[in-house]
Amino acid sequence: MKSGSATEHRGVTEANGFESDRLAPLEERARGADPSLVKDLLEKMLLIRRFEEKAAELYALGKIGGFCHLYIGQEAVAVGAISALGPDDYIFCSYREHGHALARGMDAGAVMAELAGKATGCSKGKGGSMHLFDTRIGFLGGHAIVGGHLPLAAGTAFAAKYQNQPRVTACFFGDAAVNIGAFHESFNLAQLWNLPVVYVCENNEFGMGTPIEKASSIDPLHERACGYGMAHTAVDGMDVLAVREVVGEAVERARRHNLPTFIEARTYRYMGHSMSDPAHGTYRTRAELDEHRRHDPIKRLTSALESIGALTPEAFEESDAQVRQVVEQAAAFAEESPDPASDDLHSDVYRD
Ligand SMILES: Cc1ncc(C[n+]2csc(CCOP(=O)(O)OP(=O)(O)O)c2C)c(N)n1
């Protein structure tokens, strides 16, 4: 049997019991988890939520220009998944990537300054919201073309394998990307060449204003991986511990066996597609939005922790106050930072 063939690969999948449905209730998993890890996950989700709220405010004030896609509602996906990666692993994202950058540990000031187009931004103010980048932490963008980064992720996974480095690539994208040609080309090569890559589709139910059922011939989306013999599963993307666990298994499989995985994280975006979209869009009802908010990833983890006595409302408020302070400082840093110098216009465009 050819190494990594579909049959062999299915065996690995079964051996790993790759199904998020088998997970115990959140309270039970939270009880068994390292308390400092859970606190960190909660605070990272809170940081993203407060950061995005501030970004919306600054955008409305005209202090952030261009495109700006907020991540509110989806925080558990970036935080859970990125917590399962090692420091040398690579990350690729779509344009909805503020949360992933923060979850990876990028400085909130450098992210906010980039949104505001300032010289102190992580891409020196030349990338903006959709092009956050920091090679020091393996954060390889921020990509504006739907599905355009999926082949790049296969590329870094190929490089790691070729150079015999135990580096995994995680690649995040939206549900609309599964209909892009590059998705299929990447999946074919990732499986054919046994590449250590974890593809995470953040199914937030809409591609701009188009609901997924009007765009995809297949639901569940993760079954698209069947066409390539690739391991696949869905996970509750509003449950940070579930995302961490399922992505953690995929990362292990990539690192140990050089096998790719496709994970569909079911989530929901609360805001419009971008800041140029009306707050909730005209393509869904307020009732639908409210129903999804009942499963809010931050509230869910908070109430699970409170119910097992691992968090008090006071401790939550304290974390929230600290996070708000970080965000205020980030906004002040962005506002006070200089614009990129006009002499710098052509630098960093091509490699010297
Ligand atoms: C190849 C390509 N086609 C069209 C667009 C315009 N466009 C920008 S965002 C978007 C919707 C993508 O939705 P999805 O992949 O589900 O991600 P989400 O915005 O929900 O995070 C489209 C069609 C684009 N950027 N790239």
Describe this entry's structure for a reader.
- The protein has 352 residues and is α/β, with parallel strands linked by helices.
- It has one domain (6-336): 3-Layer(aba) Sandwich (Rossmann fold).
- It contains twelve helices and eight strands.
- Strand 7, helix 9 and strand 8 (261-266) form a beta-alpha-beta unit.
- Helix 2 (26-32) crosses helix 11, helix 3 (35-60) packs across helix 4 and helix 7 packs parallel to helix 8.
- The chain binds thiamine diphosphate.
- Thiamine diphosphate is lined by residues 94, 96, 144-146, 174-177, 204, 206-208, 273.
Blueprint of the fold:
Layout: H1 6-15, H2 26-32, H3 35-60, H4 75-83, E1 90-93, H5 98-103, H6 108-115, E2 139-142, H7 150-162, E3 169-174, H8 181-192, E4 197-203, E5 206-207, E6 210-211, E7 231-236, H9 240-257, E8 261-266, H10 286-293, H11 297-307, H12 313-336
Parallel strand pairs: 1-2, 1-3, 3-4, 4-8, 7-8
Antiparallel strand pairs: 5-6
Helix pairs in contact: 2-11, 3-4, 3-12, 4-9, 6-12, 7-8
